[in-house]
Amino acid sequence: MQKFNLAIVIMVFSTIAITPKAEARNLWTNQPRILSTVTAQVSDSSNKDDVSIYLKRGFKRLEEEKYQEAITDFNQVIKLEPNNSFAYFGRGLSNFSLHNYHTAKDDFDQAIEISPNFAYGYYFRGITLMNLRDKPGAIADLQKASTLFTQEGELELAQRADNAIEEIQAI
User: Fold this and answer.
1) CATH number 1.25.40.10 is the correct assignment for the domain at 3-170
2) Is the pLDDT score of 10 beyond 60?
3) Does residue 37 have a pLDDT over 50?
4) How confident is the model at residue 43 (pLDDT cuts 50, 70, 90)?
5) What CA–CA distance (Å, rounded) separates 151 from 116?
6) What residues contact 70, with CB distance under 8 A and at least 6 apart?
7) What is the pTM of this model?
8) Where are the domains of the chain?
9) What are the distances in angstroms from CA 3 to CA 43, 51, 160?
10) Is pLDDT of 38 > 90?
11) In the 8-state DSSP scheme, what is residue 117?
């Protein structure tokens, strides 16, 4: 299977944006926005242009807080390419923002199943689990995210995951 890299700059929600939606409101109050470049592996098919368009637009709509529209775009990607972990991740972020925590968790689960070393997937599933009052699950996912971020050389993000763990343990 031929692959090409599709660079997608996504806004991974700032902890300030997450804070009003989180039960543990003080976890990320002074954190700056996390801006990350995610490189998606998209199969070389006749649908690759459509997938690229829907992904970019979905993340843009997510950034613009147009969550339902973003979900529609991510659903189109999933229809065209069922194993696209970034589509499930984006849809998970959208559902999280709409307080659909169980659905968001399912999306993050699917993203992680497809891409088992997806640090952002573990990070945001951990945040979601905290909202679902699964403290042990949240801590486990944030620890995994920290490990993966460290392996990727993303030490600042690893530290944020570690800080979140400390805050959750203090609750």
Assistant:
1) yes
2) no
3) no
4) very low
5) 14
6) 58, 59, 61, 62, 90, 91, 94
7) 0.76
8) 3-170
9) 5, 13, 32
10) no
11) T
